[in-house]
Amino acid sequence: MSGRVLSFKQYVGGADNVQVIEMFPKSQKTFIYNYGGSNVSAYTFSLDYQSILLDTVTYDNLTGNVNFTSTNVTGYFDNYTQPSANTYIDTADAATGVVSVTIPSNRYAGNILPNARSNVVMTVASFEWQTADTPPQTDLHRWAIIERWEPQVTPGDPADNTSPAFIAL
Which of 32, 34, 66, 134 has the smallest CB count inside 10 Å? Predict the structure, then answer.
């Protein structure tokens, strides 16, 4: 390789704040964040996501866990989105330290290979919060979502997409 292709770890960051899950593009999932009973109602929350293309993904034969040891990011898609915090972040219980975050459906609308172990689409969703301190403290948590083929998705090579457009690194 030319050295211009980023490894998964370089592109997404360290494993401390990244959780890897697999979902169908039309699926959505809600996660509950508990800030240990602290009142977080004055915090500012946001959510955004964008899809990337991984050259190869392998799985551990014993655990079934994804193994990114040999994975490189070959490009990204022009689908950067910042969904409405009012719709996808529920702060109704923020005074008790509980916030619900929903990873929206239809994050990625391009081609997916049905048996994808190469040219795998991954959407990285970032949930960020900023405290009301002076100066404010900012932290984030990322969900790395391996997008899986389902019958409503056009089977094909994601690198051939025109919408969302694939941009090679």
Answer: 134
Which pair of structure tokens corresponds to residue 157? 């090579």
Q: For CA atoms 113, 114, 120, 122, give the dihedral sign.
A: positive
C-beta atoms surrounding 3 within 10 Å: 5
Strand partners, 34: 98
pLDDT digits (tens, 9 = 90+) for 65-84: 888 888 999 999 999 999 99
| pTM strictly above 0.85 | yes
Rg (C-alpha) for the chain, rounded Å, is 17
Measured distance CA(129)–CA(134) in Å, rounded: 14
Number of domains in the chain: 1
The dihedral through the CA atoms of 54, 56, 62, 64 has a sign that is: positive
Q: What is the pLDDT of residues 79-119, one digit of tens each?
A: 999 999 999 999 999 999 999 999 999 999 999 998 778 99
